[in-house]
Design goal:
Layout: E1 15-22, H1 25-35, H2 39-42, H3 44-48, H4 59-73, E2 85-91, E3 100-112, E4 119-129, E5 135-146
Length: about 150
């Protein structure tokens, strides 16, 4: 199978951006009820009495939107071999109904695998911003990608 992006297509300092996913109040409540049923994600009235002063999206919903943006931006066209995990996730600012989220992802490091000549890893930092340009979440982690030309 042929892909658009292989490990060789990533380099430190490379930046990719995408965006335009908005969250409605209904989507926030639905996600909250199903996956993170804290009152400030699921109940308008209780959310008003919370530290946040109103309904907010679950951080995990923001992370899921981030993942969707990464998929749409490049991952679905990449020779991805999965990921060993995320090193850090930080929710910096609440996401509220009507917010439109965009992604900026930066390659921090690439490394050829010492044990798998057909694979390399890419360490990146993904930042999610709202429509006002405010950082709402960032995460960093590693992706594994097939090499176009396996090392000899």
């Amino acid at each position: 199978m042929s892909y658009k992006y292989y490990w060789e297509d990533f380099y430190p300092g490379q930046v990719r951006e995408a965006g335009g996913i908005s969250l409605s109040e209904e989507e926030i409540i639905e996600f909250g009820r199903k996956y993170d049923p804290q009152p400030f994600h699921t109940d308008r009235e209780k959310a008003k009495q919370s530290f946040f002063g109103g309904l907010i999206a679950s951080g995990w919903q923001t992370a899921a939107v981030c993942m969707r943006l990464i998929c749409d931006l490049y991952l679905l066209e990449a020779a991805s071999m999965g990921s060993p995990g995320v090193d850090e996730v930080r929710w910096v600012k609440p996401v509220r109904a009507g917010d439109t989220l965009r992604l900026k992802t930066t390659v921090l490091e690439t490394r050829a695998s010492a044990s798998r000549p057909d694979m390399g890893t890419v360490r990146s930092r993904s930042e999610v911003y709202n429509q006002h340009g405010e950082l709402v979440m960032h995460m960093s982690g590693v992706g594994m990608f097939r090499r176009r030309e396996p090392a000899k």
